[in-house]
Amino acid sequence: MSLTGNLKTVSFPDILQLLSTGKKTGILQISTATRQKEIAFKNGNIIHASSINSSEDLLGNLLLKLGKISKSDLEKAIVLHKQIGRQLGTTLVDMNLFEKDEVIECLKIQIEEIVYNLFSWEEGDFKFIDGAEPRKAPFPIELNSVNVIMEGTRRIDEWFEIQKVLPPDDVLLKIATVMKTKRDEITLSMDEFKLLPLINGERTVKDLVETSPIGEFVTYRAIYKMIITGLVQASGRSARQEESVVNEEELIISILFTLYNNCFYRIRTLIEEIVGDQNPMLNKYQASFRTGFLIHFPGFDPGADTRPSFDKFFLEIMKLPSTVRIHTVMNALENMLSNQLEYVFYFLGDGIYRRAVGKVRKEISEPLALRRELVKRYQIDDNLLLSIKKADRVVKLVKGAS
How far apart are CA 379 and CA 229, in angstroms? Predict the structure, then answer.
């Protein structure tokens, strides 16, 4: 089976689905300029995963975070495994530091973290090597690919809501002195219970993720749940965070420029995947938006070296009255996005429309993570969701009339 391409045109969940339904055995390689990951399959299920040039997925780091090994014992095990050339997990069992089942459970967590991280990748070259086997997989591990797809997709949807609640990266978190809940008891999940001792008023969200024993996404979710239940609150700002004075209006316009261009790029490439880039109807439709400052939004490749000029766009925006400037831009972009989504539904059907909506939803994650406080204040996330809701209303009306 020959399977090569880029995640810009074929999403990671679609690749997993294809390999799962085809019950394929082999290795899937996915790489960018700075990252590379491999996933091994057997009869369609995941049996191994590894990262190259990344310390985040190393077994030793995971064991330290989980509190299952001391730093000195780990250092001894690393020296020994390098001397004898055996895998670290095997070496830990040989040293009687772990039972085989304990190592397997930790390796399973490691594989899951590597694979779930790929659900957020929007670009990267992939290649499936049919029949290939992992070189270093001493322990039998098997993850059901269908379950992984369902969990990964759920995490993407959940991440959107989580990002809206998490505080800015320089905010320290502490246990609330006065609970906002009216209940006498607060029920904690096991993940929240494990994270709670680390929340001491001296760590930010980023610090907690780096020291957490429960994995990156699970940590974000646990923090989110404890914030909305009132158990955790802000305790000030980190002195380590460098204060930068920027023009807020220019910054918010820059976020809008990048966010919506990315959204339009995702929609355009999805349409081109179905009908081709020379389709006259598509070109005519896109041309209808190229007026005023909207001419700067044909949708550009986020990974390309050459991008539309933000400076020209910004100068065009500055011609608008300052009192309505941001509102005018956001309103125009909201309408343009909902119209493009409606176009996808009219000409390509409900299935492709849902795929387009999914790609648009994912684009808000990066600006939310980078400038969460600013994005909230200007309601950029709500504005993007409003575009989707407007398109959904049209789709429901058309479906109801047919």
Answer: 23
In this structure, which amino acid lies at residue 49? A
Handedness of CA 60, 218, 214, 375 (dihedral sign): positive
Q: Which residues contact 198 (CB under 8 A, 6 or more apart)?
A: 208, 211, 212
For the chain, what percentages of helix, strand and coil (3-state, to nearest 5) are there? 55, 10, 30
What is the pLDDT at residue 1? 58
Report how far Cα 354 is from the mean position of its chain's Cα atoms: 18
Cα–Cα distance for residue pair 252/342, rounded to 1 Å: 27
Query: What is the rounded CA–CA span in Å between residue 280 and residue 284?
Result: 6
Core vs surface per residue 65-99: b (16+ CB within 10 A) or e: bbebbeeeebeebeeebeeeebbbbbbbbeeebbe
- 161-209 pLDDT, tens digit each: 888 888 887 788 998 877 665 556 677 888 888 888 899 888 888 888 8
Let me know: does 134 contact 111? Beta carbons within 8 Å: no
Spatial distance between the Cα atoms of 38 and 17, rounded to a whole number of angstroms: 16
Ordered domains of the chain (ranges, CATH): 3-160 (no CATH), 166-237 (1.10.10), 248-401 (no CATH)
Cα 309 from chain centroid (whole Å): 27
At residue 354, the 3 state secondary structure works out as helix
Beta strand 171-175 with 232-237 is antiparallel
Residue 303's closest CA among 122, 156, 127, 126? 122
Average pLDDT on 314-327 reads 83
Check if the beta carbon of residue 267 is closer than 8 Å to that of residue 236.
no
The number of C-alpha atoms within 13 Å of 342 and in the hemisphere containing its C-beta is 18
pTM of the predicted protein model: 0.54
**What length does the chain have?**
402
Cβ-in-10-Å burial (0-12, 13-18, 19+) of 369 comes to middle
pLDDT digits (tens, 9 = 90+) for 4-18: 998 888 889 999 999
